[in-house]
DUF7684 domain-containing protein
Amino acid sequence: MQNKILTYLQLPPGSEPPALDHLSPFLAIVLAEEEVTELWQAEISRWLVAAGCRYLLAWGKDCEAWHDMVEDAALEAFDYEDVPEEHAVIATWHEDEDREEVFWFARHRAAHPSHSFKATVILDISLLNRKDEIEQEYADA
């Protein structure tokens, strides 16, 4: 198995996201620990799609809304017309699952018809930086 790039990114609600284009295409896991405004959620969803997120797993608060926003951002990027397969974003939400189960699925089952992901981004929507804890949990999955 090839080593994949794992990027942990803590993003407090309302903050500006960094560039991630160099990781494209990538799989993203949104850990929604904090409630956010709908406007900021839409901005972050557009940013994820524009940066190259092609598979999103949403977990935590309002994870279904994260799923819906990312799907909408992917359609919006192509003016709500047909999205070419290589630009399609697969999005899932995991409301009733443990975080460890989401990590396991991301590592062992998540697949895209057009991409083999070399990078995973864990987007931690949190006021606390939990890099070591989250990365260890992901590695153990």
Notes: The chain has a mean pLDDT of 95. The helical segments are 38-51, 63-76, 99-108, 131-140. The chain has one domain: 5-140.
